[in-house]
Every structure is written in structure tokens, then in C-alpha cells.
UniProtKB/TrEMBL annotation:
<protein>
    <submittedName>
        <fullName>CHAD domain-containing protein</fullName>
    </submittedName>
</protein>
<dbReference type="InterPro" id="IPR039013">
    <property type="entry name" value="YgiF"/>
</dbReference>
<feature type="domain" description="CYTH">
    <location>
        <begin position="8"/>
        <end position="201"/>
    </location>
</feature>
<dbReference type="Pfam" id="PF05235">
    <property type="entry name" value="CHAD"/>
</dbReference>
<dbReference type="InterPro" id="IPR038186">
    <property type="entry name" value="CHAD_dom_sf"/>
</dbReference>
<dbReference type="Pfam" id="PF01928">
    <property type="entry name" value="CYTH"/>
</dbReference>
<feature type="domain" description="CHAD">
    <location>
        <begin position="214"/>
        <end position="501"/>
    </location>
</feature>
<dbReference type="InterPro" id="IPR007899">
    <property type="entry name" value="CHAD_dom"/>
</dbReference>
<dbReference type="InterPro" id="IPR033469">
    <property type="entry name" value="CYTH-like_dom_sf"/>
</dbReference>
<dbReference type="InterPro" id="IPR023577">
    <property type="entry name" value="CYTH_domain"/>
</dbReference>
Amino acid sequence: MSPQSAAGLERELAFRVPDAALEGLAAFAAFGRPRRLVSTYWDTADFAFRQAGVTLRVRQAGRRRSLGVKWRERGHGLATRAEREVDNGGDTPDLGRLEPDLAEYLAGLRRDAPLAPAFVTTVLRRTALVDQKGGAVEMALDQGWIVAGERRARVRDCECELKDGDLPVLFDLAGRIVPRFGLRLLAASKGERGYALAAGPAGAVKALPVPGSAETMEQLLEAALGTCVTQFVRNWPAFLDGANAEALHQLRVALRRLRALLSMFHHEVPAPALEALRGEAARLAKGMADAREWDVLAPLTGEEDFAELCPPGGIEQFAAALGKARRASYAGVVGLLEGPDATGFVLAAEGLAARRGWRDGRTDDEVAALDAPAAAFARRTLKRLRRRVLKRGKGLARLTDAELHRVRVALKALRYGVDTFAPLLGHPRKTRRFAAIASHLQDVLGEANDAATLGALVGGLRMPARAAAGRATRELAVAWFEARRTSHRSNVHAAWRAFKKADIDWL
């Protein structure tokens, strides 16, 4: 069920403002006098609204009390949320003031559980309306705190909400102020940050489904781009707040999916903008690669069979060195996400979609090709990607580790294509079956690749001069992965045979 019929749409980007930039940003536009806003967010004891991606708050601004509900709808871009705001009679939420279908939706989430305050935000807000070519954007500078019990987080936010015009207007303003004042994209709203204080960090977010309503190739491109960027950004909080290894994995998955999908579209409608974005995604992913490899390696220290081979104290020294390398790599990812490159990448991707910038410099025939049926493009693309996997895997028993890795890369692209395009193709059972077979092959190829590459990573692990047992353990780990490399090869052949026989009549 969805409350969409009761909603308006909020088109907004939010940024973290460095203290040094506050004064300059305040002078950028004609901001009014500050107003004190106190917002109390309500939920059930088990945070049913949070689990559904909904925020419910009562805001006090002077004598006025307003009731606000916000949520994200499937198919909306990163900058767009559904919202509803009405007057509220007092300090506790009066859901009866909402439209019946929205009130019914919220009642279904809470299931008669009582509502209670979860956290409170208190900010001083100054606003200014900034005229842009083609529209206007309201800028709001918020300074204050988010408080949940004994825990609190500082607020130094700049929110930019589109008031008139289309989305490119919003991204044009962001392009002016972000580099000038060193702003950084806020991946989590105040409500989401409050929940992180009240209930713990957010969990990792897996790949989001692409709406099956896309009819043209261009609509499919917009939807696919939006889901990848949203998955990438929505995993920032889980990683930054909780050092969540799964969130790190999903960050890289989002970037890989994006690169694969952009390549699919670029194959039929070459566009420099798509290639440039794909290159930037590859650069960000490369900055996260080491951290993910240390995560894959970490479970080795808990394997009893391996520990029995190691000298006394070796596992402890090896684990300490491994932990140090892993923490350093995580710090690098934090710096990447909190730096200018990640913010610039997201704004470039979302701005490209808003402007349909892939049309720039294209011929009339190339632009017309974007109106081709999405389902036909999907089937054509998946057939081509499957042929590429089969070609790269020919003579599998004789392939080198590097050649097997190329098979795996091609297979990943096919998997991402199947997962993304499935809603357009019908035959859900057959597509799920094929995806499961391809996924298994991808997993065993991944295990073989890990065995081939992690040995080299371990071999380069720095150990303290006095950690003789740790160095001996490191050498044992190198040999351990070499042995695994041989055993995993046999698993690849069985999975490869199943893949070649997999039914594709649904294409």
C-alpha cells in the first residue's frame, strides 16, 4: 500500500556546511531573520515508521503547530520525497487531520501501538529565495542540535528546495554553491540522523528495483541511473556511522551496477556524458577496493583449520596487523565519502538525469533511438551480454586466473542486467531461475578470484619487526590461499556447465 495519492513532492538537496563557510554562505543571498523551529519526531517503541521509511513529526514555529509526514516513493530520484503537512491542534500528532488514505496507511504501520517521541531537533533557521534561470530555489540555513535521550548531534545544514521550475534549476544552484563554499552532500535527513541516535545506525541498502513502468529506452536509463545513485548514497550513513562492512560492499555494488548499466546504454547510443560518469564511478570504486578485500580476508583468522597450522601467538599478531590495515583502509573510504569527489559525483549523476544530458551532441537519429521500446532493448542487451560471457569462457579449463576474472566481470554485467530489466520481461520464475544459476557461477568465480588475489594481498601485509610468529602465520596464509585456488577451480567447472545449459527461452 502507498499513501502517494495524499502527497505533494518535496524536491530538495541538503548539504553539510563547514564552520568556516557559514559566514560566506550567509552573505550569498538575502536571508531573513532566524526563526526557532522545534520538531518532535514520533514513532512506535519498535520504530515501525522508521522501518517503513516514514518520518512523522510535529513542528513548533512560534505559536503554530504543524504535522508533517515524509517518505520516499519507488521511482523518485534522490532529491525527491513525498510529503504532506497540515496544521496540528497541539503538541501530539493528530492523525485525523490527514487525508483518510494517508491516515489509514500510518495506522496500518503502527497497528494500534502507542506513539511516543523518538527524538527532537531544535534549529535556528534563516531562509532566502534565490532566483535562478528557469525558476527559484529556497535556501535554508539551519544551526542547532538533534537530541535523542542523552545523545546529540550537531546541525549545520544548508537545505535547497525547489520552489519554481524543473529539477535542473536545483542542480544549477548546487553547482554554484557547492564548490564555492566547500559544501558536502548530506546523505541522511535530520529525521534519519535522529533515528541513528535513537535506534542505532541505519542498515545496509541492497540494490533497489527499477520500476517496470519504463516504456522507452530513455525512461529505463533514467530509472536505472536513479536506482544506482540512490543505492550508493543511502549506504553512506550505515558505513559512516557504523563502519558497516555490508554497507561498504553495497557501496561498491552500486558503483559496479552503475558502470555496467551505463556501458549497456552507451553501446547503443554513444554519449560522452555517460562515459565520463562511468569513468568517475570507476575511480570512486577503486578508492574502496582495498577496504573490501581486507573485509573478505578478515574471517580467515577465525577458521579453526587455519589456526591449528599457526605457531603460538601467530594468529593474534596476524590479526592485529590485519586489523590495522583494515582500519586504515576504512579511514580512506570515510575520507572519500566526506570529500568533494563523492559529492561531485552524485550531483553530476543526478544533474545529468535531470537535464537528460546524454542527448547533448547526439544526432537526431541517436536521440530518436532513445524512444525505442525499453523491453526490446533489454532483451537485445541481455542476449549480447550472455554471448560475451560464453565467448570469454570458451575453453574454461585452460583459462588463466586473469582470463577467469574477465569471465566474472562479463557475468556481473549480465547479472546486473537481468536484475535491472526483469520487471520489463515477464516470466518472473524463469528470470529468477536464470539469475540464481548465474549468481552461483558468479559466486564460485569470485571465490576462485579471491583465492588467486588475496594471497598476494596477505603477502604484502606489514608486520612488526618482533612479530616472528605473525610473519610465519602470514606465510602460511599465502600457502593457504594457493591451496584454495586449486580447489575452487573444480567448483567453477560444474557451475559453468549449469550456466551454459540454463533456459533462455524467456529472452
